[in-house]
Amino acid sequence: MSGPVFNRIAVIGLGLIGSSLVRATRASGAAKTIVGTARSEKTRQRVVELGILDEVMETAGDAVKGADLVIICVPVQATGAIAESIAPHLADGAIVTDVGSVKQSVVRDVEPHIPQGRFFVGGHPVAGTEYSGPDAGFAELFQDRWCILTPSEKSSPEAVEKLSAFWRTLGSNVEVMAPDHHDLVLAITSHIPHLIAYNIVGTVADLETDTRSKVIQYSASGFRDFTRIAASDPTMWRDIFLANREAVLEMLGRFSEDLAGLQRAIRRGEGDVLFDLFSRTRDIRRNIIEAGQETPEPDFGRGRPTSSSED
Ligand code: NAP
């Protein structure tokens, strides 16, 4: 364990990611004091019961007072309003960051509210599960996962450095990327896969009852893996697709072209086309395992809270 990177951190939004951050910060000693708040009385009350924070505040404005790091952990479309509400209360020199799964829209919505002498650096821990809320969080969520920081031209290099040190103390690997590049990469690695899962599970939901019951009976043949991803939080994913519309549509265009190619190969009986693609895709999985982002077990993560569905 290394010493505290920050004196006092304020976490706004205490769901899966916010409460995991709180737990990981405490477990690693990355900050001396951890305070936080959530929108609803129910969540604030639950966090008091869980005893994971030094103090639970009623408002975001109160939570950020005196904090040298503020982490916004709410759905991406709500981030700008939070930034506006905390702006007058931010301490001199405070660093503000977020954990949103889309970065260009967050930079656009947050940066105009950040007063002189306070610094915003966007962030995205590429770690998660399909569960939500304060009970779903756990301290090990970010261990050996990537956290992508997306500074803009206005972000100070010292703030990026300090935030990197914080995430490394939590056990993450840190990569710095431009916000638009982040959104393009995540569109194909996370957002399109989620869209495919939502679509295929939606197709099954619309099937006639007797066919649907057979699909559920034989779900272990592949469908089951899609249902785990398609069980992810609807608010969060609605916001992601709306906020990352352009990158998602661009990648979806490529995906649709490739799908049409596969459709043609099947219709024409071009087995070698199919075999060649399926061989290349195997190599990609092998590379992911070698990079430590997956284990070879076929049911990796299923039924365990450490499963990483994100994003
Ligand atoms: P979550 O478990 O649903 O928690 C969301 C938190 O945000 C809750 O505390 C909720 O408050 C609050 N909130 C929701 N809508 C709000 C609004 N309009 N205004 C203010 N507060 C609001 O969600 P999460 O999974 O932690 O996701 C939080 C962020 O992390 C999202 O931006 C998401 O893109 C990003 N992220 C998620 C994952 C993942 O796999 N889940 C991974 C990486 C990044 P109440 O509890 O009071 O309703």
Structural class: alpha/beta
Which ligands occur here? NADP nicotinamide-adenine-dinucleotide phosphate
Percent in strands: 5-15%
Largest beta-sheet characterization: 8 strands, mixed
Got a strand count?
8
Number of helices: 12
The overall pLDDT, averaged over residues, is 93
Class of the largest domain, according to the CATH hierarchy? Alpha Beta
Extract low-pLDDT stretches. 300-307
| Alpha-carbon distance between the two ends | 27 Å
How helix-rich are the residues, as a percent range? 40-55%
> What CATH architecture of the largest domain would you give?
3-Layer(aba) Sandwich
Q: Rg to the nearest angstrom?
A: 21 Å
CATH-defined fold name of the largest domain: Rossmann fold
Strand order of the largest sheet: 3-2-1-4-5-6-7-8
What's the structural domain tally?
Answer: 2
CATH homology superfamily of the largest domain: NAD(P)-binding Rossmann-like Domain
Core attributes:
single chain, binds NADP nicotinamide-adenine-dinucleotide phosphate, 2 domains, Rossmann fold, 311 residues
Give the helices and strands, then pairings.
Layout: E1 6-12, H1 16-28, E2 31-37, H2 41-50, E3 55-56, H3 60-64, E4 69-72, H4 79-86, E5 95-98, H5 104-110, E6 119-126, E7 146-150, H6 157-169, E8 173-176, H7 179-205, H8 209-217, H9 223-229, H10 234-243, H11 245-268, H12 271-290
Parallel strand pairs: 1-2, 1-4, 2-3, 4-5, 5-6, 7-8
Antiparallel strand pairs: 6-7
The structure holds NADP nicotinamide-adenine-dinucleotide phosphate (NAP).
